[in-house]
Amino acid sequence: MRRKKTTLTDKIFLLLLLIAPLLPSCGSVPFTGRRQLQLVSNQEVIALSLQQYQDFIRTAPLEKGTANAQMVSRVGSRIANAVESFYTNNGYASELENFSWEFNLVKEKSVNAFAMPGGKVVIYSGLLPVTQTEEALAVVVGHEIAHVIAQHSSERLSQQLALQYGGAIAGGLLGNSQVAQQLGQTVFGLGAQYGVMMPYARKQEYEADEIGLIVMAMAGYNPQTAVPFWTRMAQSGGGAQVPEFLSTHPTDSKRIANIEKILPDVMQYYKGSGVQNNTSAPIKTKADVPVKTEKARTSEEWSF
Q1: pTM score of the predicted model
Q2: With contact defined as beta carbons under 8 Å apart, do 81 and 219 qualify?
Q3: In sequence order, which residues have a C-beta less than 8 Å from that of residue 5 and are 6 or more positions away?
């Protein structure tokens, strides 16, 4: 009897079956209610990432005391205060112990920013000519803060652990031959990277856009600033883009289209008063939504 050929889809399905026992270890993302895999605690990830952040800050050319540095600190503190008010008003005050906010401006030409678990946010000075205004800077800071409060680093680590766990079992099932082991590494390493990890990272980027717009709105910054900002970002890239299926980030056009789609809902959090708004609105949890059937790092620098 001829043996049926095992396809890549079959192997990925096998991986999902192998990691199915891990799926009950789920949390939910504030504001969106999306369920996420959490095999490691946020506290563990914060502890692992703190040394990396401290090493970076120790050698980074920080810009301090300037008007731009003060603006970064002001925007960050304002949005962080809105987030903390939101959590306090909704009975999630105990989760605030996971946040130790810090906002730094680094003298660097890169048009970039990143956040580390626990609330360490870094803005590169090369980004400021693109943001141009304080409200546009709030788009960036809100996006980075969103990665923090959504615990995307913990989620990425959990995904990597799940993939490695599945890959190890599959390696045993494939036998001990070198060819079989290489095949297992291809399917559950590179194959999983481009088939699972990267698309999921794009989902996290869209989610950070949405949550970022909400928290900036609660802090009194107009979310409508996001569309012209991301348009300028697209123009600043010189037209050269990595194909989306090889990138952890959405294409500029898709990102802008998604922002335009969610803006009407986001605007309910904004009243243009320059103070925190709607911080008593309910946070979504997994009970509120229906259940839907790179080099590994200990912490993730979420750059856009």
Answers
A1: 0.76
A2: yes
A3: none
Task: Copy the structure tokens of residue 185.
Answer: 């590494």
d(CA 13, CA 36): 19
Q: Which two tokens stand for residue 1?
A: 């009897």
The two counts, helices (H) then strands (E), for the chain are: 11, 6
Name which of 24, 11, 1, 36 is nearest 190 in CA terms. Answer: 11
Positions marked active-site = 144
| Dist. CA 93–CA 74, nearest whole Å | 23
- Whether the per-residue pLDDT at 263 is higher than 60: the answer is yes
Q: How confident is the model at residue 189 (pLDDT cuts 50, 70, 90)?
A: low
R_g (Cα) of the chain, nearest Å: 21
The CA–CA distances, whole Å, from 7 to 12, 14, 268 equal 9, 11, 47
pLDDT above 80: residue 252: yes
> Which 3 state secondary structure label does DSSP give 82?
helix
Neighbours of 47 (CB within 10 A): 14
Query: Residue 207 has which token pair?
Result: 């989610």
- Residue 296's alpha-carbon distances to 36, 187, 193, 242, 244, in angstroms, are 19, 17, 11, 21, 20
Dist. CA 129–CA 133, nearest whole Å: 9
What one-character-per-residue DSSP string does 124-178 give? EGGGHHHH-SHHHHHHHHHHHHHHHHTTHHHHHHHHHHHHHHHHHHHHHHH-S-H
Q: Whole-angstrom Cα distance, residue 128 to residue 131?
A: 5
**276: three-class secondary structure by DSSP:** coil
